[in-house]
């Protein structure tokens, strides 16, 4: 496989959807992080830590024919407000069609201005690019659908943010970069002309097994299901995306854009980390509500294709969105029952709520509490908090009714509840070290997070919550 041979199916769409964009070249690009297993799958060398020629191939030479890099146009509701957008600092190098038929995007993030950059410089600082690499690969290790990171390449140049910071480019891999915002763009631009071809293209990139005679409904139903399952997975591990704008909701069901995201340590349903989310719009407990809101915006772009008249189209959309809410609640309940080792016991949902209420009041560590249950399956009831001891007694009674051995229950708990997540303080420590030239901590943390369900030698520090106190994240632009 020639790693520099790309497809450009996106260019079969009307030119409204993209503009040509050439990545900047840099005099001294160097690979800081390289994802060997992913690279092999894409046809690149498995090892490239010291390969300056590979870094130069991405960022050290002008891109010419037959490559046709482009920036995608899209729109989005950002914190509820509609805006026409586009790839301001991301450039699609091209698409790779793998031997088994999978079609994926290879994109540079932070490689310079595009026609959609507005007043931005199109560049990226090293810290946020390391963060996206680390968190996206952690999500992959957790088994959660996500865009992935092939590499972080330092540019040898500084960018101006709060001060001068080292510049870097992320190479992002995605099933596609189609998003709800792509459809919002098409509707705002010329819906009757652009939406039919976009619907057809989206179904070709992301085929659905739920076929119907109506392509728009087929697409809508598939995206509803993918997003429902994705948000349940976020809730399972205490992940807070932080910027759930419609331009950050993919049709593929992959998590995208790891700007102000974070994982909870101490449980708080209203937890917000993003410094710009002052109202708590994207708080942990709000995520399923916002997902439904975003999907309603998606439905609005497709109404003309749901049914011949507006009344029937709105009824169809509302029925499906209502069903989304109920299906999410059912999936969430099943997921939470799995987290306490009772996946086949829907009558035990009060145990879930009792535990979460206790965790909220005591600010218990989300990851540690659930992971610690496996050690309590057959151990004597214990704990400093009498309320938690009483909960354990009820929980153990419920487990006794399960036709499984304690070993089977422990195994299921440990496959559902990770031991390692990207703890915020560990992420910050690793990134701070890398920004001044020491990449060993971030590489070690990436390695740890690749197998988050398995206890690892010397892993205790990465399993512990950080210091109590406020923690704020930033979008990194």
Structural class: alpha+beta
Principal-axis shape: globular
Helix content: 40-55%
Overall mean pLDDT stands at: 95
Strand content: 5-15%
Order of helices and strands: EEHHEEEEEHEEHHEEHHHHHHHHH
Total strands: the figure is: 11
Sheet having the most strands: 5 strands, antiparallel
What does this structure look like?
The protein is of the alpha+beta class and 477 residues long. The chain is 43% helix and 13% strand. The chain has helices spanning 36-42, 52-59, 126-142, 180-205, 215-237, 287-306, 310-339, 349-362, 366-372, 386-400, 406-416, 424-435, 440-449, 460-463, and strands at 18-20, 30-34, 70-72, 75-78, 81-84, 90-97, 103-109, 148-160, 164-174, 239-240, 262-263. The strands form four sheets. It has a five-stranded antiparallel β-sheet with strand order 2-8-9-7-6, sandwiched between helices. A two-stranded antiparallel sheet has the order 1-3. Strands 4-5 form a two-stranded antiparallel ribbon.
Task: Map the helices and strands.
Layout: E1 18-20, E2 30-34, H1 36-42, H2 52-59, E3 70-72, E4 75-78, E5 81-84, E6 90-97, E7 103-109, H3 126-142, E8 148-160, E9 164-174, H4 180-205, H5 215-237, E10 239-240, E11 262-263, H6 287-306, H7 310-339, H8 349-362, H9 366-372, H10 386-400, H11 406-416, H12 424-435, H13 440-449, H14 460-463
Antiparallel strand pairs: 1-3, 2-8, 4-5, 6-7, 7-9, 8-9, 10-11
Helix pairs in contact: 3-12, 3-13, 4-5, 4-6, 5-6, 5-7, 6-7, 8-10, 12-13
């Amino acid at each position: 496989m020639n790693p520099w041979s790309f497809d450009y199916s996106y260019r079969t769409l009307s030119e409204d959807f993209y503009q040509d964009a050439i990545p900047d070249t840099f005099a001294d690009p160097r690979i800081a992080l390289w994802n060997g297993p992913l690279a092999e799958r894409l046809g690149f060398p498995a090892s490239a830590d010291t390969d300056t020629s590979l870094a130069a191939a991405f960022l050290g030479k002008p891109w010419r024919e037959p490559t046709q890099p482009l920036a995608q146009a899209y729109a989005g509701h950002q914190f509820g407000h509609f805006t026409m957008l586009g790839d301001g600092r991301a450039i699609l190098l091209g698409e790779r069609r793998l031997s088994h038929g999978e079609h994926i995007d290879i994109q540079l993030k932070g490689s310079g201005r595009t026609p959609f950059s507005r007043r931005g410089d199109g560049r990226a600082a090293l810290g946020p690019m390391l963060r996206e690499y680390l968190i996206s690969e952690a999500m992959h290790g957790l088994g959660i659908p996500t865009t992935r990171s092939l590499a972080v390449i330092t540019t040898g140049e500084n960018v101006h943010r709060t001060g001068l910071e080292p510049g870097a480019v992320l190479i992002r891999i995605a099933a596609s970069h189609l998003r709800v915002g792509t459809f919002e763009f098409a509707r705002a631009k010329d819906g009757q002309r652009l939406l039919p071809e976009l619907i057809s293209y989206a179904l070709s990139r992301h085929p659905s097994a739920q076929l119907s005679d109506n392509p728009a409904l087929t697409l809508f139903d598939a995206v509803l299901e993918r997003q429902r399952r994705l948000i349940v997975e976020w809730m399972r591990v205490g992940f807070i995306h932080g910027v759930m704008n419609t331009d950050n909701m993919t049709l593929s069901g992959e998590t995208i854009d790891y700007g102000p995201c974070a994982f909870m340590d101490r449980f708080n349903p209203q937890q917000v980390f993003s410094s710009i989310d002052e109202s708590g719009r994207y708080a942990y407990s709000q995520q399923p509500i916002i997902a439904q809101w975003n999907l309603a915006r998606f439905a609005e772009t497709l109404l003309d294709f749901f049914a011949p008249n507006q009344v029937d189209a709105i009824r169809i959309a509302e029925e499906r969105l209502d069903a989304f809410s109920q299906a999410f609640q059912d999936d969430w309940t099943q997921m939470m029952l799995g987290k306490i080792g009772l996946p086949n016991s829907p009558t035990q949902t009060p145990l879930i709520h009792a535990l979460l209420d206790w965790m909220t009041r005591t600010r218990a560590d989300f990851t540690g509490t659930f992971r610690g249950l496996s050690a309590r399956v057959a151990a004597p009831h214990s704990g400093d908090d009498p309320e938690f001891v009483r909960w354990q007694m009820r929980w153990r009674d419920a487990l006794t009714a399960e036709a499984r051995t304690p070993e089977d229950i422990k195994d299921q708990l440990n496959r559902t509840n990770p031991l390692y997540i990207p703890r915020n303080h560990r992420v910050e420590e690793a990134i701070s070290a890398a920004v001044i030239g020491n990449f060993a901590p971030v590489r070690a943390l990436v390695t740890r997070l690749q197998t988050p369900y398995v206890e690892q030698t010397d892993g205790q520090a990465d399993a512990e919550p950080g210091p109590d106190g406020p923690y704020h994240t930033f979008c990194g632009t």
